[in-house]
Amino acid sequence: MSEAGHVAFIVPFASAVLIWWLGTILLLAVTRKLYVSKIIGLMFLSAILMQLGFFGLYYFSQHSEGSYAAYGSFLSTILIWVWLESSFLVGWVTGPRKVSCSPNLKGFERAKQAFQAVLHHEIHILVLALGIFLVTKDGENYVGFYAFLILWGMRTSSKLNLFFGVRNLYINFLPDKIAYLSTYFRQKSCNALFPFLFALAFTINLLFWNNAFMSLGTSQNVGNILLASLMTLGVLEHILMIVPFNCNGIWRFGLTVQK
After folding, report:
1. How many domains is the chain partitioned into structurally?
2. Alpha-carbon distance values, 78 to 82, 118, 144, 171, 213 (Å)
3. Is the pTM of this model over 0.70?
4. Nearest Cα to 161, choosing from 188, 199, 122?
5. What's the domain range around 17?
6. Other C-beta atoms within 10 Å of 172: how many?
7. What's the count of helices (H) and strands (E) in the chain, helices before strands?
8. What is the pLDDT of residue 259?
9. CB–CB of 142/61 below 8 Å?
């Protein structure tokens, strides 16, 4: 790979990692010690970011050439995801069940209560996905839409693994208002579903990277690398669930302000 090729690879990859890391830290930091005025301010700002995100997706979806269109679409989706995460973390959009899991439940009843605890959040994701599709469907740039699908898919996989059981639950990520959700998690070294979900995600990630390297030197290169990098980060988050040590240090700046 030439020096220009290295730059074309490193810049979008580093951008995706930085956005992921900083975004996580900022969300963790602003959702510590929540109170009414803070929640209202956070959601007001998040709502503005969401609107900017949809506007950006519409604008950048009309442009398929140039790295700025790929970066713009990618960042626009992240802004929408910030609204989604914020509304969940402050307890505004979770589910009709807002209490801890009933003790000693197993099987279908436990799954039913867990689903009720996040039902509205899942509907919220679906509505936003539909909105992003409608905004971008007539454009030529689908980076933003695919980025949202990656975030959605990997988040769903994470929720399933937390429900069935993994070693590291990262319960301290949950603000007080939704701390009850931790009762729907299960702690164990691993679960039977994890290897299949991980293998699926890893395979899809390889396909993304193959597409990214095949497009080197083309106008689609930056967008493909951003998507492949985002998928890689999702795979990494899954690995952090089962490693025999806690990785809170990665996000320690966001957890500095304790609940």
Report:
1. 1
2. 6, 21, 9, 23, 24
3. yes
4. 188
5. 3-251
6. 16
7. 7, 0
8. 43
9. yes
